Amino acid sequence: MLKLKSSREIEAMRKAGLVVWEAHQIAKRLVRPGVTTGEIDRAVEKFFEEQNVVPLFKGVPGRVPFPAVCCISVNDEVVHGIPGSRKLVEGDIISIDTGCKLKGWCGDSAFTHAVGQVDDDVQKLLDCTSGVLQLAIKLMGSRNRWGDVASEMATFVRDYGFAVVENFVGHGIGKNMHEDPQVPNFCSPSFRRKHDFELEPGLVIAVEPMVNMGTKKVRPLPDFWTQSTADGKYSAHFEHTIAMTEDGPWALTANPRSGEEEETIDAATTTKG
Ligand code: MG
Ligand code: MG
After folding, report:
1. What pLDDT is recorded for position 273?
2. Which CATH architecture best describes the domain 7-270?
3. Which of 17, 54, 151, 155 could disulfide-link 107, Cβ–Cβ 3.0 to 4.6 Å?
């Protein structure tokens, strides 16, 4: 069941989204060679404690419950990486995904950062993945159905020569982190026929493109959580929690102070191809 949110509920979700955004600023400032992924996770956990919010990821059930407040995935790791003793080195990319619940409402977002200087093709992967998320936000303001947005996302990524991950998708979000509908970053005929949905005011979804440099195929690692690319090439992941309002799409986990969207999409366009 798809649950639409009132404008008051969306305002409450923005408050949760801003805490998630702040957590990402703390994490981003720590990203440099020599820092461990566990140190970044602990800084975010401390911030969530200070803010009195409930981390969404810690304890998520699986073969073993997820042990951290962030999923941290490095290089060829796509999503669901477990933070720990791995030290970042120059040229790595690090995807940080985190979320929290404030007064009953959830926020969820992810960013991928370069560690120091990265190769040009890796920078292109980051530009493509952040660019396709910003494209999706923009298109949500002019398209009627998600399938139309998703098919343009897939074309955008294909034009870069990269591959959209299909095994993992975005999701509705509200009082729970994962609600209906499923939000793929590509559009199959069966999605259009059976699962497509209208972009109407009150809809709140987490849009989270995962883009691989090589094959779209992923494989699980033996830790029961981490998903890597099947060919060992790099992967990036960006995510925002986005509400449809009467005035158009609103990225609830985005920078409160500036046009983060516009800047990113311009950068992506100039380096495209
Ligand atoms: Mg997430
Ligand atoms: Mg998510």
Report:
1. 31
2. Alpha-Beta Complex (3.90)
3. 17
Residues of the chain with pLDDT under 70: 258-273
Question: CA geometry: angle at 254 spanning 207 and 108, to 5°?
Answer: 50
The torsion angles phi and psi of 267, rounded to 5 degrees, stand at -60, -40
Separation of CA 97 and ligand 2 centre (Å): 8
Question: Rounded to whole angstroms, how far apart are CA atoms 171 and 195?
Answer: 12
Q: In the chain, what are the domain boundaries?
A: 7-270
pTM as predicted: 0.94
Sign of the alpha-carbon torsion through 23, 25, 29, 34 = positive
Ligand nearest to the CA of 71: 1
Ligand number nearest CA of 178 is 2
Q: What would the two tokens of residue 186 be?
A: 């590509």
The DSSP result for 123-168, as a single string, is HHHHHHHHHHHHHHHHHHTT-SBHHHHHHHHHHHHHHHT-EE--S-
**Environment class of 56 (CB within 10 Å of its CB; exposed 0-12, middle 13-18, buried 19+):** buried
User: What separation in Å is there between the alpha carbon of 98 and the centre of ligand 1?
Assistant: 5
Looking at the chain, the whole-number percentage of residues with pLDDT higher than 70 is 94
pLDDT of residue 259: 56
Query: How many angstroms separate the alpha carbon of residue 170 from the centre of ligand 2?
Result: 6
In the structure, how many helices (H) and strands (E) does the chain have?
6, 15
